[in-house]
Amino acid sequence: MLIFRLFAVLTPILLNGCAGSPEKQQAPAVPTAEPSIQKELPKQKEAKTEIDQDVLFMLMSAELAGQRGQYDLAYEGYMEAAKRVKDPKPAERAAMIAMYLKDPKKLNKSLALWLKKDPQNLTARKLAVLSSLEVGNQQKTLEHLTVILDNDAAGFESSVLELASALQSEGKLRVIYDALEALSAKRPGQATVPYLQSIIAMQMKNQQAAEEKIEQALKLQPDWDKALAFRAQIAVMSGDLPKALDFLRGVHRKYPDNQKISKMLTQFLIKTGEYDEAGRVYQKLVEKDPKDFESWLALALVDIQMDRESEAEEILKKLLGEDEWRDRARFYLGKLEEKRENTKKALNWYDQVREEPFSFEAGVAAINLLVHDKQYEEAISRLQTMQDSYPKERIRITLMKAELLNQQKRYQDAYDELSAALAEQPDSKELLYTRALVAERIGKLDVLEADLKKILAQYPDNAEALNALGYTLLSFPSRLSEAEGYLLRALKLQPDEPVILDSYGWLLFKQGKTEQALRYLEQAYAKQKENEIAAHLAEVLWVLGRKEDAKKLFDRAFKETPDDEYLLDFRRRVLNRSE
């Protein structure tokens, strides 16, 4: 691994080293009229060049040693150079090498020298915090954290969270929490410290500590919106959304002019379906600040949700006059016309959206609208245009096109489209999975099996692929035991997934375990009223002698979708044969 670039690194060090190297010393001007004073002056050393030749040699030797992988020698070279110049960069370089070597002693030594030359350097301080935490030196940790807090109060939060992220991967969040506890005792008036402890406590899954610390932060700074928001988030993360909502309502009553709290409250209200109340809060926000276009847009969306279409349209048309919000307004005006079933007007609005990412989503919305109206050729034409315009969205567009072709039962065309895309992106999980499903439609079971096994080679715990492969193998009586292996793995990964429950129930039926099959199929159908599951369940009920139950189930499903292929197959194979 080449971590040294000789000239790229050496040049700035040399240039900066000029200012930090021993300067030329000149004797002070001495009046010639007073030769006795001149004689008393110490003899000046010969002036040095701008950078000492020994230092230059050390730096070059360190770089060359690094290029050769002799990192210990490189470290020593940088350390020796660092001792002789004022510039902190050689010490910084030595610290980076020590980190690469994972040598705590070398790291502490180089950091001490770096901080001696540049005591306010936050990067050095953060590394020093990590280093002192690693060796359990609480006094040094506290010293470094205090310097960071005192010198960069605004950035202290991000610095600590960055440190916590590094320690979380090592399972050492507790040490940074305890270090902050010591800092809190030293700086008792800093609300940021218990606030950060609350965040870290939640990362440690200690809700009680998180609640205690956030209350401590709010006691120090009662109107701190960030802390108030996190207090609500703690309730959400613990699964108590009503508690979070009640808390935010109380905070909003106390601080009605706090915009952040108001907006957070609206988000929670929308999550719980309290659209009317959310609308009232947004209305107050825009009354206080008519230039708050974000809240204007949110209010329009709430109006659409509440079927207040004229109010929503009025707001959205006002937003057309604001450059930053124009495309979003056009997009939602299209959604509004789509809701009104005005296809032509909706398409007109979608086609006016110009900027990404809204233009892509508008294109997708237009295609979905055309498919709904069975305008397949126009939809495919638009997809082709989008494929040329959005090359980064190639996979998503291809999947949409394949789905559109499938709906028209043009399975071979869908297969060809997916195969062409796979030629360019052969490892795409989404393309492989979709082609596998299409391959089954045209009898290419070898392709189906190969594609699904390729996915499983990359993602052995992909439940969808495991289920699809296991279910496919149920068509071959000689491979039921192989199918069982795949389906059991899928069931272990997602025990409540209706499609997997259906597949496993159908396997049990194929194995002659009809009573057991019934239990799984009933669970699957209770979770998802899907026609294929209904057909399987009806057949098992029929075999068990519960023919009236089977007919009722079939009639109910068939009434909803009389052209469903699975229900038609059940009627042909079972019901018609019994008549």
3D structure, described in words:
With 579 residues, the chain is an all-alpha fold. The protein has helices at 6-20, 35-40, 53-67, 71-84, 89-101, 104-117, 122-135, 138-151, 153-168, 173-186, 192-203, 207-220, 225-237, 241-254, 259-271, 275-288, 293-305, 309-319, 326-339, 343-351, 358-372, 376-389, 394-407, 411-424, 429-441, 445-458, 463-473, 480-493, 498-510, 514-527, 531-543, 547-560, 565-578. The longest helix has 16 residues, at 153-168. It starts with 5 loop residues before the first helix and ends with a helix. The model is unreliable at 1-50 (pLDDT under 50).
Summarize the structure.
The protein has 579 residues and is an all-alpha fold.
What does the largest sheet look like? none
Number of strands: 0
* Residues in helices, as a percent range: over 70%
Structural class: mainly alpha
Uncertain residue ranges? 1-50
Q: Describe the global form.
A: globular
Cα end-to-end separation = 76 Å
Number of helices: 33
User: Rg to the nearest angstrom?
Assistant: 35 Å
- What fraction of residues sit in β-strands? under 5%
Mean residue pLDDT: 84
